[in-house]
Amino acid sequence: MNELPPEADVTAEGSGAAPIDQPGSFTDDEKRTVQALYRRARDHADNELAPKLRAAWRAYDGKVDQEPAFYQGPDAQGREIYHGSTAVVREVYDKLRAMLPELARIFLSSDEMVAFDPTGPEDEEQAKQATDYANYVIARQNNGEELLLDAFIDWAIKFAAAKVYWSVEEKQEENGFAGLGEQALFMLQQMAQDPSSPVESIEAEPEVETLETQQMQPDGSVVIVPQQAITFRGKLRKNVRKGRHAIELIPQDEIIIDPDAQTEAEAVFIGHDCYRRVTDVVALGIPYDTVMEYASGNIRPFNNDSTAQARRGRSSGMLVASDVPDASLRYVRVCEALVRLDRDEDGIAERYRALMLGDAQELIQLDPGDDCYYVLASPIRRPHEPIGDGIAESLIDIQEQLTAALRGWNNSMNRSCNPREIIDENDANAHQDMQSPFGGPIRSNNPAGIGFHVMPFVGDRNMPLIQYLETRSSGRTGISMAGQGLDPDVLKGQTVDAAKAVVTAPQVQLEFLAREFAAGFVRPINLAILKLSKAYQDKKTTVRLRNKWVEVDPSQWSADMDCSVRVGLGGGTKQEKLAGLAAIMTKQEMLMQIGSPLVSMDEYRNALGQFCELMGYKATQRFFKEPTEESMQAAAQQAEQQKQQAAQQAIQLEAAKAGATAQEKAKGDLEKAKLDIAAADRKAQLDAELAREAAVMQMTVQREKIEADRQTAMVKMQLEAQLKREELAAEERLERLKMENHSRDGQGNMRTVVQ
Length: 755
What we know:
By secondary structure, the protein is of the alpha+beta class. It is 47% helix and 20% strand.
């Protein structure tokens, strides 16, 4: 993820100081007030929290209060002997271990568990930078993966407690040097003698070094002349004070809080009460003599703390001071707490950081408490209580009942499979020889001698109860065999919607628990990091975030920024979420293509990163780069250039299209003219042919008419000639008749009448 940046050097001007380097004075009344608040918080932890924690951790380790059956009494070593089953159903352990992989996938596969929200448009870039920097502080400076994995278990048991503070560490660094001149060595030695200088000591030894120098000769030539010089080589030790954000996961049995507190931020007293080695307390800046006044004479003082034993799963042996003479390895009781006191008598109680030592909790220091924050989170919220209920607590009764049911099942099976002998009470040999390792003989007056008492198997009657209890356990935790894909029979005979509900319901429960962890534990830690960064890092530093070096200046960030949870979002299975994201990205691509203001490259990159995280790839930068302001501007310029090029290409295309259209039109007109000319020529040819044909036809008609006229004339002439001949013939006949008539009249006896 992010690489380790240089730590803040608190020796620079304006840097924060160690929390307890400058002890403040306090009055006797303030001391009594702090001690009274401590005792009340300690009593609350011992009487209220400790029994619940012991029960939860005992259940996690597979220890139940249910006694096995068939108690036989103690053995020679005093151990109690039972002939019944001692099996334990580790329901708490199994369910919590089944939850861890899913929680680890949700949180450790994402670079942003929570994100800072800008208070205004000018804070947009600062919010992103603060988010990346807070994630770096958790992951790199405080080994975030191990921190979260341990916190998951504490949180699931009852609650997770963390302390976020600005830690100043003084380290001794040793650097070597060589080739140092005498004057430079003298200056370093002077610095080592100054108490305010970070240089502690210098070890140097002289060295003779031969140097080659050039000398000009009278004749103008250059000659290489060797010369001996004395330089110094050695080691430089200096004390360096560096500040950093520290996130400490507090064991549950070491946290104490005022019983009237509704939240850890409003508690009048909340602290970390524990045993630390003398060397660790001295490193906080407390004088060694003061620490030794309250140091314990024992090396390990934990053996009498039953809550710590339950959490650790073991007890520690006692070692006295004589066993380990080194006093720095002894333990001293330390309580670092935040208290609210009205020291300036203005009626408002401010936060102060108190340091108390010894079993009597003697107040040593009382300083302003703006450099430390406590975080408490539980998986099952209890309104108006800083500590709620744990998942382990909700499973203790189920684990007890499942254990009893399983033991009954085993006992019934064992008694059924191992019948007890029945022998004659007077048969001493049979009684001696037929000892049963499971139950022993039964004496009777049976005349048959030896028989067997067979018990029927009734353990199967417990199975419905076991199944019911497992169902209740799954409902409380969200962990079921069906949800994990381990029981194929549970989905048989069900509809698609019913099967989907069976598989999805546990995953919804886990998503809700993940959001609870993020909102109750991770979010307050990030807010504390923001406040500490703004208060103690008042100079710029260069940090490598998201594979690029960034100049970070927390003093310019807004202290009013809030955090929003980024994990556990959405519902359904992993495949359904991937399908939903794929649909969202498809719609984003469509909107980006048309230049919609609804989607930019930043939103599209977020969708791609979320897609990779759901697939299980945490380092999304390996696949997709983070869009920077420069890259966004370059992309916008490139898009604008492409848009302009596209517009120019469109204009050129239109011009080309218009030119092509004109050419096509001219070509068409030319072709049309050619066709018109061809058509005109064809028409002229047709007209000429028609004219010729018409002329030929006319001539033919005329010839035929002339011929017809001639024929007609000839026929007419023939008819006229024939008629003429007939007329002539008729006239001749008439004349003959006349002549004949004249001739008869002359004879006197013939009369001819001519009609």
